[in-house]
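Thought: the user wants the 3D structure for the chain below. I'll pass the sequence to the structure tool as-is, report back what it returns, then summarize two notable features.
Action: structure_tool
Action Input:
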Amino acid sequence: MLPILVLVLTLISACQPVPTQEVTETIISEPGTEDTLEPTEPPVEDPSQTSLPDTRTQTPVFEPWITLEPIASGLTAPVALAAPDDGSGRIFIVDQVGLIYIVDSEDNLLETPFLVIRNQLVNLNSNYDERGLLGMAFHPDYVNNGRFFVYYSAPLRAGGQAGYNHTSVLSEFLVSEANSNLADPDTEKIILQIDQPQGNHNAGAITFGPDGYLYIPLGDGGSGSDVGPGHPEDWYEVNAGGNGQDVEDNMHGSILRIDIDNGDPYAVPEDNPKISKNFPEIWAYGFRNPYRMAFDMGGDHELFLGDAGQELWEEVSIVTAGGNYGWNVKEGTHCFSTANPGTPDAITDCPTEDPLGNPLIDPIIEFPNLKHPDGGLGSTIIGGVVYRGSALPAWDGRYIFGQWSISSPIRQGGLSVSTRSDQGLWDFEEVQIVNNENDDLAAFLLALGQDQQGKVYVLTSSNVGPSGNSGMVYRINAP
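Observation:
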């Protein structure tokens, strides 16, 4: 009976309809084109084989949902993350209080810090402070030369401007020859010192560009509205400050671009835009506090920068050579009034270009601050990164950023993800953290970072100022 039964089952199986799958191919076009291919003929399949759906050509579905995987804890105020291109898989965490820690390729936080420069910092206010150790960048050839750079707030240098608050320092260090997990603290070489009139708006997210040059963001010198001591009058409003628009009296409110491999202690790249006669290092300007910025690891390697607003609007820009990004003439896409900074539309007709004819470039993303009288999404933009990891394929090319706080008086940070737009402001939506209670961050957002594989990290603290040990680092994963 068994041979007859097998024959019957075989005939029944052969009579069943064979599932087929329509295969399409999509051409990724330049913006503004609409080229597509017609569907191809379905493949011929062997009816004797069981067919499973082929998902290789399906477009991943985008959803603004993630999980957060804890990577490091017990830190004070993790404000930056850097990863050398040396094959080690390590990430380096910058703690505002003057420490740099290593997380190895197995996600172990090493007990001994890579670098300690607490004694070189200005005294920090534990309740709230924007000064400290703020940035780190590895030389592109770090694997061979062991050079890395840090940006920190030191006491006002000898001979510094009287009455100023502190001096921002860009320094170079070398890794220890005996231990790749330790820096050599005796190798410090000061590259640049910039006296700061006030204690806030210190930026600090130094980074190397794809061109091999070092980019250094500088705030407008601090205080409010870009006015006060250390802020010269400018061309827009009588008696208004203007470091953001003044490129001849100081470097504040700009992005510097320097050649760290030539000159003593550096050279100015020959193709830097000729913005300033006195400061040829200036590459772009018109910023308030470019707290965090990063180059896209893929695509056209654009420079994305989050510029912290003052009263009403927070913004993100794509920065290009020679660009004027508007502060303090504009806050986001809106006119800014130094006389009435908290009043929307206090000025309704502001210039669209500076006196030299350079256009005031609008941001790609903006949202209202919590202080906006009509309500807002959050306070203080935390500039982020373009996602290039593998865990969330549908997020590829989308920009992740956040807010230091999204609620008041119970404050906690938030994450958002945006989608590129060919015209006007980009759309964005809030990110839901599905493995956290209430789907939110439940801590202040201090920074976002990225490793050599494109994985994205979220750096937080439960404290307003650089104190305690509630600092955490998380990795973004799929839900």
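Final Answer: Structure generated. Residues 2-15 form the longest helix (14 residues). Residues 96 and 269 are 30 Å apart (CA to CA).
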